[in-house]
Amino acid sequence: MHWKTKSTAPLAILLYCAACWGSSAWAQRRAVVLSLSGASGPRLTSEIRRALVRQLQLVEPLTYLRAARGGGNAARVAGARAVRASAIVSGNVKRKRRSWVLRLTVHNGFDGEVVGSTVFSLRRPRLDQRTRRKLINTLLRFCARTVPPDAAPAEPAAPAPAPAPPRRRAPPQPPKVIAPPPEPAPRPPKTPSGDEDLGFSKVKAPSPVGDRVNPTADPRIEKPRSKPRPSWQHILDISAGLTVLRRSFNFVDPVEPTQPANYTTPGVVPAVRVDANLYPFAALTRGFWGHIGIRAHFLRVLGLKSQLAGLTGRSNTLIQTLEAGARYRFNLKDDRLSPTIYFGADFGLHSFAIAGAEQAQIPLPNISYAYINMALAELDYPFYASGAFVIGAHAAFDLMVVLTAGDIEAVGDLGYGRAATVGLDATVGLFARYHGWFARLDGFYRRFTFTFNGDCYLEAVVDKDGKVVKDRRCGNYAGGARDVYLGGTLAFGYAY
User: Which residues, 6 or more positions from 364, have their beta carbon under 8 angstroms from its beta carbon?
Assistant: First the structure.
């Protein structure tokens, strides 16, 4: 009895042989991957070698570099013969704003000519899964066009002999045996995945003697989906910190009283400070509107108590500043290491008040400034950078036009009459940034200058003897006053 069975052994053997032929074809192709130059070059070189180690037979680049002395195609061929490599992979990495540009070039080991070049744009100095797959497929396709350096050039075919003239009444000849044509050389296997999965179009490879490839004009460059926003063009930054300051208030040319109640804080006093800047259109555009924003500033002294003559105990003392306004920023070279200049104007309120000061032996009027703060010159200048870490200097000079100063300008028992008041604010310091986080150390000098206009003596009256005298309508009078604040701030914040 005979059993009829269908055996799958021939099919399995055929598939196994095809797989072995494909793997052996790639394993015989030797390549050398040279170290990439530029920022993050060693890291990306290691990642590229790990990605290609299973696809190609990689050789040590040190032997190649010893043999390939000088430059040009002759040096490449000498180095390729030393390591018997058919492909030479080289390139560089450059940082452009918040992205990294990776350029790779593959040279033929037989003649040193360029067989292909590609460019990738990376958001970080590493290869993600998608970029690694594209890079492998592209480099394997280029390496398939290379020729080993020890391959012999093809010899030209000999011309066919001319046919002999026919003879009359020639005896019948036996039929000629025509040899079958030689089988074509096997082509290298295709890359693991086709170009249709990569999302970029094919590029015609240059001929061994033709024009070289221009990497910057390669249409296969992987452009980011959206143009990255520069690190200096943040949308929001907010910071909080500790301020220490000293306040000094003195009258100039006092008339009545001759020894007025000047004031100085007992040493330096602590204060809390919060700053915030918002550029709402920076997320939508990098043009003019993306540089216009709003600013807010808050400062308040903590736990300050003052002692005045005629009062029992120490009185609570308030020193507080609140400002809000508009800002415009301008980066000179549109780069994170380029200076950024700020212009703007704020409306501010600054208060100084002592509880029960009007009941002191020599009353001290409270002061409440309302002013327009104009940022005449404000500059951030980064002078050192290492990767994402940046250090720079900060300077600002503001002019304050005071609209009113509160109780000190009152016409009465406690006031000194109306005054022309102007202020200035100067700040210098250092800042450090790492990605979005930053720290700032500043020193500041703020000064208000009063010039009383003599309202207390404007009314002229005639006494009973017929003499013209001036009626003093105020309880106090002086030529002017100075209000000075000196201190420093250490603040930490985050910018997005």
Answer: 261, 263, 308, 354, 357
DSSP 222: B
CA-closest candidate to residue 248, choices 425, 428, 406, 449: 449
CATH 3.40.50.10070 positions along the chain are: 20-150+191-217
Assess whether pLDDT exceeds 50 at residue 221. no
Q: Which long-range contacts (CB under 8 A, 24 or more apart) does 176-183 make?
A: none
**Res 444: pLDDT:** 95
Per-residue pLDDT reduced to its tens digit, 96-126: 877 888 889 998 888 888 888 899 888 888 8
The reported pTM is 0.53
The pair of three-digit structure tokens given for residue 400, joined into one six-digit string: 């304050």
* Identity at 112, one-letter amino acid code: G
Phi, psi at 149, each rounded to 5°? -70, -25
| CB 443, CB 244: distance < 8 Å | no
Backbone angles phi, psi at 303, to 5 degrees: 65, 35
* Average pLDDT value over all residues in the chain: 77
Mean pLDDT, residues 309-336 = 83
CATH 2.40.128.100 fits 236-495, yes or no: yes
Please state which of the four CATH numbers 3.40.50.10070, 3.40.47.10, 3.50.50.60, 3.30.70.20 is assigned to the domain occupying 20-150+191-217.
3.40.50.10070
